[in-house]
């Protein structure tokens, strides 16, 4: 399992980095071009706001792949030392990570359900008339990938001292 | 009100145990909602909240401002900003600390992250202050405290998050933050002066800056200042929406970074953009969790139950705001700034609205309190960051050093209570 994770996670991280970079860059350029188009050429980009909405959703969940794999989530570290006296550190980490994976699985499942609903109803966006299901499925797909990367990240992190180190090694 | 209070208690316990704040908030929200309305409803609520907020146009301002900050960070302007501030303030007593306050204000305003500001400025400003034998407390305290200035000075992510939760206009909140932000800078400068007035040997004056260094430093200040004015001026004049301003800000920051010789390889581009996206995702997981949690809290009736409590206590609007501020100060000891805004504001929103509290003004008050949370024990993230970058500094010295600045923030709080126009005057003219 570890060998598998070691082989698979770094290329996945690279792909996720490139995808998030492209999405975010597109979002910035689209916003910029829309404003310049509006004021300089009096020709704003048609449906720019909707495209930005889509890009936002996609870049959040593409970024989540990186965050989940490195476990960069916000935590409260008030009682770290006291807790380590109470329960073994490793045990506590396992409980915490299982919890994170569980909730992430719940999110991914529910996003998939949302996408199926959108498909069944056939909701289209107002301006561009793009199917909402398309972006919903994309987001659901990304959340599944982020869940897989979360698990791979955990497998890899087990051999180092802490999850914190993993970012620098990838 | 029992389910909601139980929810809060469980959430705090889970966070103390080390569960990731976003995931814990989300799950407590779902279970609470399921307890009141059944599991299927709770699950579909989660899907809906996550997906619809992931596609919320107003929230796209967050990644774009984070990207602007990441580009500015990569442009390595901190050194030049510090030199420029030094050119203005270095010759006074405590001049290096004064320069640190001004440089931190400028850097954190465009960078947006108080932690990144504290980390960067520690590297830039501590060595010269050590050279001039500044007291460690003043040197480190001024950095830890001034790193938080950008939370109030727009563009600011906490202000955006408050705007979303309280359903207020993001642009108006940004503009509302300008005067309080400048007031804070002034008070922080006052805190430095007060410190060196009490202990003159803590912060001697610096030598005049080499004219060549000064010229080079000022060359950086103008584009950065220009970008800041463009972004805020555009919002103030309603020339563009906050999201558009953020896009333009990010683009401008990218140009500044390019002109300074950065972003020359594809790898650098990818890592900069991916870093901004990671930060965004970290924030959004907490936002999603908190929005689901807020749905549970609303359904539980707690915010409306509080109305009765407030009636029974005959709490005046000011009394209500003061109570919320006290709770926020305590929450600031546990959660990061974002957590306070996302968890606390929804609970008190109906009560504040009913009491006729100006929600733009209240946003400024609550954001000011979150600044306090970043430098007060036991957590004080900014203090920890300074310590992490300069491990030989004693934590106690840093906390001692931020004390005058805590005083300055409290003075600002009192002033904003006494003169609400500080926050409400500028947005009125938009």
Provide tags for this entry.
heterodimer, A: 170 residues, mainly alpha, 78% helix, disordered C terminus, B: 430 residues, globular
Question: Care to describe what's here?
Answer:
The complex is a heterodimer of chains A (170) and B (430). By secondary structure, chain A is mainly α. Chain A has helices spanning 2-40, 48-70, 80-86, 89-121, 132-157, 166-169. The longest helix of chain A is centred in the first third of the chain and has 39 residues, at 2-40. Residues 159-170 of chain A have low confidence and may be disordered. Chain A contains six helices and no strands. With 430 residues, chain B is mainly alpha-helical. Chain B contains 21 helices and no strands. Chain B has helices at residues 2-17, 21-37, 39-54, 61-74, 78-89, 95-111, 114-131, 136-146, 149-152, 157-166, 170-198, 211-236, 242-259, 266-300, 302-313, 317-332, 337-354, 359-375, 381-389, 395-418, 421-428. In chain B, helix 10 (157-166) crosses helix 11. The longest helix of chain B is centred in the middle third of the chain and has 35 residues, at 266-300. The chains are: A mainly alpha (170), B mainly alpha (430). At the A-B interface, helix 1, helix 2, helix 4 and helix 5 of A face helix 1, helix 2, helix 3, helix 4 and helix 13 of B.
Sheet/helix structural class of chain A: mainly alpha
The value of Rg of chain A in angstroms is 20 Å
Report the end-to-end length of chain B measured between terminal Cα atoms: 40 Å
* Main sheet makeup of chain B: none
Give the overall average pLDDT of chain A.
Answer: 86
Radius of gyration of chain B: 22 Å
Strand content of chain B: under 5%
- Sheet with the most strands, sense and barrel status of chain A: none
Count of extended strands of chain B: 0
Taken in chain order, the helices and strands of chain A follow as HHHHHH
Task: Count the E strands of chain A.
Answer: 0
What's the total helix number of chain B? 21
Quaternary class: heterodimer
Helix content of chain A: over 70%
